[in-house]
Amino acid sequence: MKIVVGLKQVPETTNVKINEKTKNIDRRGVSGVINKYDRNALQTALDIRDVVGGTVIAMSMGPNDFAVSLQEALSLGADEAVLLSDRAFGGADTLATGYVLAEAIKKIGGVDLVIMGQQSVDADTGQMGPIVAEMLGISQVTYADEIQPKSDNELRIKRYDDNIEQEIIAKTPLMLTTTGNAGKPEYVNVVEIKNSFEKPLTTWTSKDMPVDSNRLGQSGSPTVVRRIMSPEPKERAGKMLSTDATKAAEELAGILHEENLLAEED
Amino acid sequence: MDQLKTREEILLRMVKSFTENEVAPFDSEIDQTRSYVNNLLEKVHDAGFYSLVTPEEYGGAGFDGRTSAKVLNILAKGNASIAVTLEGHYKSVEQIVKYGNDKLKAKYLPQSADRIIAFPMTEPTGGSNPMGINSHAEKHGDSWIINGDKIMITNGGLAEIYCAMVKTAPTELSFFVVDQDMDGFEFGKQEKFLGLTGCPIGEILMDNIEVDEYHLLGKVGMGPEIGNSAHDDARVLMGAVLTGIMEHQLDIVSEYATQRKAMDTPIIELQTIQRKVADMTIAKETTKLLYQQAAIMKDSGQDYEQEAAMAKAHGSRAAVKSGDDALQILGGYGYSLEYPVEHLIRDARAMELAEGSVEKMRTEIALIEAKSRV
Amino acid sequence: MTDIRENWIFAEKSINKINSATFQLITKMKSISEIPVTVVLLESQADSFENEIKQYGPDKILTVKDDELDKADDVSVASALSGLIDKFGTPISFIFAATTFGRSVAPRLQAKLLTGLTADCLDLSFEDDLLVQTKPSYGDNIMCEIVIPDFKPQMATVRPNIFKAEKVFDDTTKIVEINDLNWDKDANIQITTHVLPAKTDENLATADRIVALGRGGKQDLNNANELANKINATVGVTRPLTDMDEFDQSQQIGQSGETVAPDLLINLGVSGSVQFTAGIENANTIVSVNTDKHAPIFKQSDYCFNGSSEDFLKALNKVL
């Protein structure tokens, strides 16, 4: 199977704050790591390859320093890596990013399976898998928990849609997105890091793919982030209920019903 | 892409995540059970940590002194014992690399990926005074017969290969590499130490062990030089371990002092607390600068003996003091065995003794300094 | 394609009923905009969920009766929704609940329509026809205000249980039944479903409701268990109580225990040490009962009862 794994480099901690002066996210001293769900995606790809054979290609779109994460993926066992990097890609939202990823996957050609993490821990959108799947015109299974190859072109997948357990038999070509339960990500082996430099890591710019420049970067992005804010600190009102237990219980029961706090989740 | 920089970044990412997931959650349990619970050693081995400083031509990763020190700094923030276990291994590997003949290197360096190597010097009659030791080796034709007992060995009992210091003449010290598979090799008792309790400390007994000539590290009589070199390498790494301990203390204290309130004010707003946190921060940062400076000098081939000694002498006292400040800030919680602060003091305290006492180190620092100025 | 002045909401079903998030979205969209609200419902011939939906007063329900679409996969549903837009025109907005299903289908549709989508919104408002979407990122550490100025429909998925659903009593909802929708079935996916028993999960970290006992509430374990059963809550304790035989470490809330984020947390005789409150910051609503009116826990609570937890529990168990 030819498998492409989408990887995003994200800040190592999501515990970030807004800089009061610049009104931007303060990322001082925060270094990058591979998005944790993408580690599950990569491991899933490696596990499938180890059973049915084939190639795992790690792919990421971003600035040049994202190459470190691709090199890490190679150290973890990916066979090849492609970095999609171009100033023209900058400022892309999910749609414009999905477009470039889809075009790159088309350029690779003959891809049976694309795997991505269920969402990135920084943007938290979870849109990339379905967008790229639609643009490639392939089927999708999102939030996959367990994945097993059934044959050369079929996977058996377990996932949960709230409290419905689903077992899915999916034929390739296919897009999978993985939860934190899929695959068991391993640690990079200290010695393997240097060996990974013998594997190919290629960079493609907008010139390497037949892309429509209007669909790239900011100009290809329908969404506009108008403002970023710190979340309002939770203030607790500390409202005192009646000092009479029976009255207090009635008051509380009313509040709980009114605020829908006793409703069963679906 | 700067390949060396990228290699280091990938490595440090792994070490951070390994520490967070496999080491830090078990810190107190390791301390209390005196063992590397949850298969920690197996995981450390499987991730290739044993091969970190072993040269590439012997199947290792060949990372330099600066990087290996950073690795131990990160690991020690999770648990100092495991970092000291690796420190003992790395300094031993480095002496085999530096002083071993080709045949010795070809035999033991590939094994360093799977077997821990230790560096026993101390005996009941001598440690900081090496001439006081009784172990000795006698030449018989092409081989040497080694006899004697070594005590208080870092990783003693866990390590499988030992670079042992022995006398080859009444006033002549030399090192030989022996391993647990040799006839006449036996393990002695295990120590129960106050701190770094996860790291085994034990004895080996050498009873007529016969080794080929190539097991001699360096040349006959090079004992003092090799011993000093091992000390220097260990001290750089200990500076890193101590930095990790202080970072751990600062994490605990920062979280507590920003949440704990006195009269509605988080106690971090109080100057008495701020003074302690500031002192702890300065102590951590100065130790970090010292060990990194020593490592950079080591990697660039300069003399780093004085810097290494300063990293350990300053860092060990600083970490004990910093631990005491942390305990005081946490009050009863700091004094409780349920919180890790108390064991961080015990851990740091070990490093005022190991690899040369702080007193001995001050002598070295003073003599180097004075001689360089006259 | 023509534009229509409507806001669309996708009606999500889960196991033979409409997901309550759909009702919450109807109420919310009606309250922030004058633009008519249309609910899109895919159901089997035998079902009539429109009757349930119309109690929340949408202006219109587009009901696609198709047995095959009823439990279809993401690709088929996205195709059907795109078919509806072809048929009726492009609405101003198209809103989904940020459930597993909503978060899978909405971006697929977004890519078909080449428009913008904001995932997992916590708030929505309108500036004329512009939908202002507030979404968290960096694990809720940052809030972003996002708009889609030049594309329609403006799409969003919205986190369930942020808004309150309100029934209305005027019956003016127009129901449009569609029986001839064209859509592409995804033949590559075969789904076998298996409905799990209702949550038996005793895991504190993921519990929706928690009853927490502190030193001052430990004698009320029976009453507390009764309350927990009534409201389907998990029981948690403060650190000192883990020494009791009835409890173990896994039930401890706080710094050295679990960090919890329930919708509702009821603290009984919990004083409110930092070690405990550090673990409850993400709870939605906190109710605390304590005999000490100066107990620090009251400052961390939304509702407080100063008195005996025994009396309070008995009274509450009676009324619930």
From TrEMBL, chain A:
Residues 22-213 form the Electron transfer flavoprotein alpha/beta-subunit N-terminal domain. It comes from the Bacteria. InterPro entries: ETF_a/b_N, ETF_b, ETF_beta_N, Rossmann-like_a/b/a_fold. Pfam families: ETF (PF01012). CDD domains: ETF_beta. This is Electron transfer flavoprotein small subunit.
TrEMBL record, chain B:
Its cofactor is FAD. Residues 8-113 form the Acyl-CoA dehydrogenase/oxidase N-terminal domain. It comes from the Bacteria. Keywords: FAD, Flavoprotein, Oxidoreductase. GO terms for molecular function: acyl-CoA dehydrogenase activity; flavin adenine dinucleotide binding. Residues 118-208 form the Acyl-CoA oxidase/dehydrogenase middle domain. Residues 231-366 form the Acyl-CoA dehydrogenase/oxidase C-terminal domain. Belongs to the acyl-CoA dehydrogenase family. This is Acyl-CoA dehydrogenase. It comes from Companilactobacillus mishanensis.
TrEMBL record, chain C:
SUPFAM superfamilies: Adenine nucleotide alpha hydrolases-like, DHS-like NAD/FAD-binding domain. Transmembrane segments: none annotated. Residues 7-185 form the Electron transfer flavoprotein alpha/beta-subunit N-terminal domain. InterPro entries: DHS-like_NAD/FAD-binding_dom (IPR029035), ETF_a/b_N (IPR014730), ETF_a/FixB (IPR001308), ETF_alpha_N (IPR033947), ETF_asu_C (IPR014731), Rossmann-like_a/b/a_fold (IPR014729). Pfam families: ETF, ETF_alpha. Belongs to the ETF alpha-subunit/FixB family. This is Electron transfer flavoprotein subunit alpha/FixB family protein. It comes from Companilactobacillus mishanensis.
